[in-house]
């Protein structure tokens, strides 16, 4: 299977979204103190980076 730049960015975007969801859910359900806010914030940061990766598809 040949992977060009767009498929690599698509895989990176999907993995970042999955990890962002996992981090937000860990912050919401696993940790009830300040660490939960940190996990959720990092999860939203993963969403932002995934959005940038998605915007780069077709332009790189």
Question: Could you walk me through the main structural features you see in this protein, from its secondary elements to its overall organization?
Answer:
This protein is mainly alpha-helical and 60 residues long. The protein has helices spanning 5-30, 34-56. It has one domain. The model has no long low-confidence stretch (mean pLDDT 89).
Write the layout of secondary structure elements.
Layout: H1 5-30, H2 34-56
Helix pairs in contact: 1-2
Mean pLDDT across the residues is: 89
Shape: elongated
Question: Which structural category do the helix and sheet elements fall into?
Answer: mainly alpha
Tally of separate domains: 1
Query: What gap, in angstroms, lies between the N and C termini?
Result: 20 Å
Determine Rg (CA atoms, Å).
14 Å
- H/E order of the elements? HH
Strand proportion, as a percent range, falls in: under 5%
Largest sheet: none
**What ranges have pLDDT less than 50 throughout 5 or more consecutive residues?**
none
Summarize the amount of helix as a percent range: over 70%
Number of strands: 0
Number of helices: 2
What is the gist of this entry?
The protein is mainly alpha-helical and 60 residues long. The chain has helices spanning 5-30, 34-56.
Provide keyphrases for this structure.
60 residues; single chain; elongated; mainly alpha
């Amino acid at each position: 299977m040949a992977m060009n730049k767009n498929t690599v960015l698509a895989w990176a975007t999907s993995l970042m979204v999955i990890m962002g969801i996992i981090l937000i859910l860990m912050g919401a359900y696993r940790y009830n103190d300040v660490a939960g806010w940190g996990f959720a914030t990092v999860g939203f940061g993963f969403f932002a980076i995934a959005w940038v990766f998605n915007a780069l598809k077709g332009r790189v």
